[in-house]
Input
Amino acid sequence: MVHDLSPFAIHFFDNFGIRWYGLSYMFGFFAAYLIMRWLCEKQKAGLNADMVSDLITYIAIGTLAGGRLGYCLFYSPDLFLKFKPNFPWWGVLAVNEGGMASHGGIIGIVLAIWLFSRKYKVNTLYLFDLAALTGPIGICAGRLANFINGELVGRPAPSDLPWAVRFPQDIFLWPKNEPGRLPSLAPVVEKMDITSNQWLEWIDQIRNADGAAREKIYSVLNLIVEKIQSGNIEIKNTIGPLLTPRHPSQLYGAFGEGLLIFTVLFLLWRTPKKPGFIASSFIVLYALVRISDEYFRMPDDHLGLQWLDLSRGQWLSIFMLTLGLFLMFIWSRSVSITVPGWGKLQSIKLSRK
Output
């Protein structure tokens, strides 16, 4: 299938509208609030609705700030030094350049929870557990939004794979990585009143470092994708055979990093656990699933595969796995209290001394 989904849930005009990506964050935070409130009431943990609401606010800020800073730090440090005279002025604020990093988002959540626990005098490990249980719901929604946006695409898949997806967004990389494929788009651009000769002439010009021609090329590529997203079946069918079939790695992530981990953690917490157990279990499970997912996901174009043919995301996850196992060992021995599972109706006291 050729991917033809629009990033807009509601499109007003030009590049303005309500995007699925933003809605995914809203859904994740709202679902987290409902689950946390239900769980705190079930466990009688002493967190009222207002405190849970404040906790979600802290987590939201930590997620957004940590996710963006994490991407800049782990994947594109040059953004810290990138400035321009027009909005958003600083590369770190230009979220359209690279997006967010889930590993950075997790770090941001940890810092936000630490600050919240100091303010409200609530057991930090218990708050980590709450965030770990509900986090995969947001991750699932985010991965679905990644799929809708046609970003973080998968690696090439066998052409006969029934669920393989062909992403028109691939063509944005052709001028830099595969310029030899650009002439094959001639039948596509002809359907937009651009002659083959004109298209081939622009291609020859960008080979000679013609900046104006390069802008025209990218403008046409953007228009191709926009027309497909707007429902132009003729262009969609014409470009389909030219695109590489790929694994829908975003959907793999939505299931593995999201629904699967949430289900496992939810079932684990049915019975009493020591504070920190759910959080450390999340770290271990997320790392394992992410390492597996990355084998189906294209590495970042400017990074490629690294030592041992592993991606940057896999190396970060290996570190995360080691940390998770260490924390699981430490917390299981250093914490004396036990948190009731959601299947129990005991009361607990989780205020800090």
